[in-house]
Amino acid sequence: MSTDNPREAAPGRPAASPALTPPADATAPLRHPDAPAPGELLGAHYGHCFGCGEGQPHGLHLAARAGEGPGVRVSAEFTVKPAHQGAPGLAHGGVLATALDETLGSLQWLLRVIAVTGRLETDFVRPVPVGTVLHLDAEVTAVHGRKIYSTATGRIGGPDGPVAVRADALFIEVKVDHFIDNGRPEEIRAAMADPDQIRRARAFEVNP
Ligand SMILES: CCCCC/C=C\C/C=C\C/C=C\C/C=C\CCCC(=O)SCCNC(=O)CCNC(=O)[C@H](O)C(C)(C)COP(=O)(O)OP(=O)(O)OC[C@H]1O[C@@H](n2cnc3c(N)ncnc32)[C@H](O)[C@@H]1OP(=O)(O)O
User: Fold this and answer.
1) Model pTM?
2) 9-56 tens-digit pLDDT
3) What distance in angstroms lies between residue 175's CA and the mean position of ligand 1's atoms?
4) pLDDT tens across 160-203, in order?
5) Is the dihedral of CA 93, 95, 101, 103 positive or negative?
6) pLDDT for 15
7) Which residue's C-alpha comes closest to atom 8 of ligand 1?
8) 5 confidence band (pLDDT: 50, 70, 90)
9) Which residue from 74, 106, 109, 172 has its CB within 8 A of the most atoms of ligand 1, so it is best to mutate?
10) What is the ipTM of this complex?
11) Is 200 helix (H, G, I), strand (E, B) or coil?
């Protein structure tokens, strides 16, 4: 994985908006003691997730791993398929934003909190052709109460290749009730009847 700072790699890039700038009293993120080990595949948090689920034929099938080294990091790979096109032979920008969102979301496995995306700011730096393997890295930069600040890059040509897309994000911690109260009842009923899904949901919660 490249160690360069994605912000430094982007001279002239405007600073993230104030909502994505951690306040002065934000703290460094803590990797939970029961977090997956560095290098471990994280698996899907929900089988029908468009980003990571195995049950979505045209989904991204993003496979994320717990990051190596210090900090709260993950890496992931996403292969751009013909179903992901926007322009002929090129990935759709919204699909690339989804890949960044999903990679950032998978940081929750390491924090062991459940959170949803509140804000996602994306830079599209280079076009991404169909067939590309996008090498994604994401890291939590700070935590303030329920607010989780994070950043991600997607590189082409290899884990140290040039940055094609990048994002800064704010995730907001929620309880599992967020899904139970808001999701369509049939999917919620099915998820709650699936012991494997309950186990996956609990893997995110320190105090389920
Ligand atoms: C049994 C069923 C189990 C099923 C689940 C199974 C497993 C799931 C487990 C984990 C999931 C794991 C991985 C997921 C991986 C990837 C998925 C991709 C992630 C997504 O794709 S997820 C979908 C898109 N996402 C949404 O669908 C969110 C819709 N939205 C809301 O649901 C609310 O909007 C919410 C909850 C965000 C906040 O609502 P709220 O009422 O709880 O909190 P409140 O408004 O008080 O905000 C508290 C503080 O955050 C600040 N704040 C809030 N929003 C902000 C914004 N947008 N910009 C800047 N600051 C913001 C406030 O300013 C305040 O800041 P302060 O504390 O400083 O005042």
Assistant:
1) 0.94
2) 456 677 889 999 999 999 999 999 999 999 999 999 999 999 999 999
3) 10
4) 999 999 999 999 999 999 999 999 999 999 999 999 888 888 87
5) negative
6) 82
7) 201
8) very low
9) 172
10) 0.96
11) helix
Residue tagged 């049939």 (tokens): 186
Ligand 1 pocket list (CB less than 6 A): 19, 45-46, 51, 101-102, 105-106, 108, 114, 116-119, 145-147, 170, 172, 174, 176, 179-180, 191-192, 200-201, 204
d(CA 99, CA 95): 6
pLDDT in tens, 96-139: 999 999 999 999 999 999 999 999 999 999 999 999 999 999 99
| Segments making up each domain of the chain, as ranges | 25-202
Q: How far apart are CA 81 and CA 166, in angstroms?
A: 20
99-131 per-residue burial string, b: 16 or more CB within 10 A, e: under 16: bbbbbbbbbbbbbbbbbebebbbbbebeebeee
Q: How far is the CA of 160 from the centre of ligand 1 (A)?
A: 31
Atom number of ligand 1 nearest to Cα 23: 68
Q: Whose CA is nearest to atom 43 of ligand 1?
A: 172
Q: Which fold has domain 25-202?
A: Thiol Ester Dehydrase; Chain A (3.10.129)
